[in-house]
């Protein structure tokens, strides 16, 4: 058979294109876990340390950075400012020029680790002498995939029950009725506290903060949305279904989620006209940093605080936060590891707390503490707080109590898909009246498939 | 061997021989011909030189990514690790993806609602401006200014203006005794709300239509008036046919934009830090594509989605082109 010049040319072009495409599509992850790095706290370091995802703009950051830069000696530190842009990071990894160090949400660590975008930190931890025993256990769990630590956690966010004492008094309910310990009482309180004008909700009685806090309510009922090893979704568990029915039912008692949500969105959340200052919200679970916001913008708001409580009445909080991770192909893993160690050390947190205390004193405001993810540092900083007057003293006490009773969702290789499946189920219940059991069963299927695929990819 | 003395072979002359001067041509003519060719080559070179930034940009930023995307659509690729060739599996998976169907449906509904409304409002404003006389320049600028607003800001603004509780839109509706819906939280009203919000950027189309209206020959209206045609008759028999190319352009461009809508809806309902949920009523095709690519890191699957969208847009545009042959009047046509 005679092959013409054009056919040969086309074949050659196709082959060349195939080779070029194949050549272009070269990933870097999963191949460079062995960095040959030698981690030694006494080693003199040099070179450049590029950090992605860390802003470093307030005194808590800059005080620690000063200390870390001193420990790094001649290393030139460059911040790629702003929150982590996962597209930017992945592009840099794919192009073979990742940053030296990454600052990410802890719930992103599992996916990044599973894809080989970040390296295990066992050598770094051993070499630099990072005291992992000092870290909050749930925070460390969140950055541990399949038994291997991939991130050095820092900061902890926990939830408190925040309530408007004036509205509670007016409705004849107490903070114990809205802290989750008695779910029937909490639903009744919502009905008593809510104020409506036709279809509009003027005052939200109780906001159960779905879909964000479904995991919190499920844990408060003794369950978990995912197994401890991060392999099995438990979205259709009895605790999950009953918690969603109850938490969504609270909205139904008050006129439905769309009306509540519209009122929630209308609040001047970070300003002096926030929902507690304007008496338009009875109670909600909320992260502890909001205590600081309220104290600053509306110090006279009639606040009442407690921890969120399990159905047995015990404190509970769903811990989230950030972590330092070293990307595959990092050009300076030794400096990255030392920076992570220095930034999360007790000395660094002490310096940060001093700086924050000083700034709050200058502003004539009480220091309400910092949750660091490091138990030793937390204990020390707790003793430095100056929020002695009520209701803020109760808020700070509740914050530290919550911090001692945290849980987290374990790292897994499909965290984004898992979370989206859960959110989708909750939203369909809230906005379309879907049956909670059916919605969660569907989410279970989607989430489990994503987990199975993720783990298969990781292990295959 | 000169072409003049070359023996006949029974085959066609070679191109070089065809292009050469006729045998016996005067040397001056040959020189002119060579000069003309040199000039042609110089012109071609100059043209290519001036076009080269665009050509390079097109090859690097459009053609190459498209080819690469076609390749990735046949792979399992998570950006970080090497792509694994899986043939047409991504395309097979598209067929059974319920969420993809939902996203396609949302996008189709949005486009079907948005394009006609966009065209009608643009035309109405252009007709008003056409009668605004010297003030039209001012209003033209005013209408165009919102187009300069970043779509992300429009997404945030949407949540404020269309808040069912205290948004400005429901405030205005309330003034007329109308109880406005929960635009941002009721799934049934999310897409209509986004459609209304998209009218924010109607200015560009208004300007195009205004230019088309200004180009309609006045004699046609005078003739129509002499024939006793009223306003509506003139509009349907003179104005619309004469501006139909501009209308067609706006319809095609807005249809494509509608099918690719992303920014405002993503910012309002899916972006980082947002706290508003649409129960996927605002899950448009490109948003789902973005999620697959950059949140779930299924870059191969997202590439297949991109090609599916490309085919859908091509089919719809082709249908519009076929229909336009009957409905669009081009003055130069015979």
Automatic annotation (TrEMBL), chain A:
Signal sequence bounds: 1-25
* Domain of life (superkingdom): Bacteria
- SUPFAM superfamilies attached to this UniProt entry: Periplasmic binding protein-like II (SSF53850)
Taken from the record, one Pfam family name reads: SBP_bac_1
Keyword line:
Signal, Transport
What PANTHER family does the record tag this protein with? MALTOSE-BINDING PERIPLASMIC PROTEIN (PTHR30061), MALTOSE_MALTODEXTRIN-BINDING PERIPLASMIC PROTEIN (PTHR30061:SF50)
* Similarity comment: Belongs to the bacterial solute-binding protein 1 family.
**Record's protein name:** ABC transporter substrate-binding protein
To which species is this protein native?
A: Agromyces aurantiacus
Automatic annotation (TrEMBL), chain B:
A UniProt-annotated Pfam family: BPD_transp_1
Family designation: Belongs to the binding-protein-dependent transport system permease family.
ABC transmembrane type-1 domain location, by residue? 104-320
Q: What name does UniProt use for this protein? A: Carbohydrate ABC transporter permease
Q: Report the membrane topology from the UniProt record.
A: Multi-pass membrane protein
The UniProt keywords, alphabetically, are: Cell membrane, Membrane, Transmembrane, Transmembrane helix, Transport
Low complexity: which segments have biased composition?
10-30
Q: Where are the transmembrane segments?
A: 44-67, 108-129, 141-162, 193-213, 234-257, 304-324
InterPro entries according to UniProt: ABC_transporter_permease, MetI-like, MetI-like_sf
Subcellular locations according to the entry: Cell membrane
Q: From the UniProt entry, list the residue stretches annotated as the region Disordered.
A: 1-32
């Amino acid at each position: 058979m005679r092959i013409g010049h054009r056919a040969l040319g086309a074949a050659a072009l196709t082959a060349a294109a195939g080779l070029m495409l194949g050549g272009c599509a070269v990933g870097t992850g999963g191949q460079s876990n062995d960095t040959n790095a030698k981690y030694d706290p006494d080693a003199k370091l040099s070179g450049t340390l590029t950090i992605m995802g860390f802003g470093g703009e307030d005194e808590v950051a800059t005080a620690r950075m000063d200390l870390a830069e001193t420990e790094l000696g001649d290393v030139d530190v460059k911040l790629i400012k702003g929150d982590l842009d996962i597209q930017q990071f992945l592009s840099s990894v794919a192009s073979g020029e990742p940053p030296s160090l990454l600052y990410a949400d802890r719930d992103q660590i599992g996916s990044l680790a599973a894809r080989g975008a970040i390296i295990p930190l066992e050598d770094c931890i051993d070499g630099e002498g990072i005291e992992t025993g000092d870290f909050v256990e749930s925070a460390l769990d969140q950055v541990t995939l399949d038994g291997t630590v991939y991130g050095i956690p820092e900061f902890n966010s926990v939830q408190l029950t925040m309530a408007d004492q004036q509205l509670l008094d007016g409705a004849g309910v107490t903070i114990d009725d809205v802290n989750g310990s008695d779910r029937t009482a909490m639903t009744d309180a919502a009905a008593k506290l809510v104020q409506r004008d036709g279809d509009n909700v003027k005052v939200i009685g109780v906001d159960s903060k779905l879909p964000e806090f479904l995991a919190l309510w499920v844990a408060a009922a003794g369950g978990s949305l995912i197994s401890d090893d991060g392999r099995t979704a438990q979205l259709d568990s009895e605790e999950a279904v009953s918690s969603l029915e109850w938490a969504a039912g609270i909205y139904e008692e008050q006129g439905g989620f769309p009306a509540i949500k519209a009122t929630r969105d209308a609040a001047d959340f970070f300003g002096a006209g926030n929902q507690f200052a304007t008496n338009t919200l009875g109670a909600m679970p909320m992260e502890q940093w909001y205590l600081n916001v309220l104290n600053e913008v509306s110090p006279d708001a009639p606040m009442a605080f407690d921890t969120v409580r399990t159905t047995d009445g015990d404190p509970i909080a769903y811990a989230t936060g950030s972590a330092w991770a070293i990307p595959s192909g990092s050009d300076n893993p030794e400096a990255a590891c030392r920076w992570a160690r220095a930034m999360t050390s007790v000395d660094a947190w002490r310096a940060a707390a001093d700086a924050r205390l000083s700034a709050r004193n200058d502003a004539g405001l009480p220091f309400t503490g910092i949750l660091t993810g490091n138990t030793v540092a937390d204990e020390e900083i707790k003793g430095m707080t100056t929020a002695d007057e009520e209701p803020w003293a109760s808020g700070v006490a509740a914050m530290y109590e919550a911090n001692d009773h945290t849980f987290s969702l374990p790292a897994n290789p499909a965290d984004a898909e898992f979370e989206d499946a859960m959110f989708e189920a909750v939203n369909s219940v809230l906005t379309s009246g879907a049956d909670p059991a059916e919605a969660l069963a569907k989410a279970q299927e989607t989430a489990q498939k994503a987990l199975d695929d993720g783990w298969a990819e990781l292990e295959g | 061997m000169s072409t003049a003395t070359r023996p006949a072979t029974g085959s066609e002359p070679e191109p070089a021989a065809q292009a050469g001067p006729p045998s016996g041509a005067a040397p001056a003519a040959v020189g002119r011909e060579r000069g003309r060719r040199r000039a042609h080559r110089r012109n071609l070179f100059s043209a290519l030189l001036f076009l080269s930034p665009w050509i390079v940009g097109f090859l690097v930023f459009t053609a190459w990514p498209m080819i690469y995307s076609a390749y990735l659509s046949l792979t399992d690729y998570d950006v970080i690790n090497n792509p694994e060739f899986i043939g047409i599996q991504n395309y097979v998976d598209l067929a059974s993806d319920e969420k993809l169907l939902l996203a396609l449906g949302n996008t189709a509904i949005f486009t079907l609602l948005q394009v006609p409304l966009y065209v009608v409002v643009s035309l109405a404003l252009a007709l008003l401006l056409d009668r605004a006389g010297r003030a039209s320049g001012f209003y033209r600028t005013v209408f165009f200014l919102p187009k300069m607003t970043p779509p992300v800001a429009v997404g945030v603004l949407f949540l404020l203006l269309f808040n069912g509780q205290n948004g400005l839109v429901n405030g205005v509706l309330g003034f007329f005794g109308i109880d406005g819906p929960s635009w941002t939280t009721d799934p049934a009203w999310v897409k209509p709300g986004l459609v209304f919000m998209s009218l924010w950027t109607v200015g560009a189309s208004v300007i195009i239509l205004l230019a088309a209206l200004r180009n309609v020959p006045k004699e046609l209206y005078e003739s129509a008036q002499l024939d006793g045609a009223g306003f509506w008759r003139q509009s349907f028999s003179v104005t619309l046919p004469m501006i139909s190319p501009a209308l067609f352009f706006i319809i095609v461009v807005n249809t494509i934009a509608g099918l690719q809508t992303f920014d405002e809806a993503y910012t309002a309902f899916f972006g980082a830090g947002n706290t508003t949920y649409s129960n996927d009523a605002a899950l448009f095709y490109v948003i789902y594509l973005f999620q697959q690519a950059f949140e779930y890191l299924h870059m191969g699957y997202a590439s297949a989605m991109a090609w599916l969208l490309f085919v859908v847009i091509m089919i719809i545009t082709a249908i519009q082109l076929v229909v336009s042959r009957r409905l669009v009047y081009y003055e130069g046509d015979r």
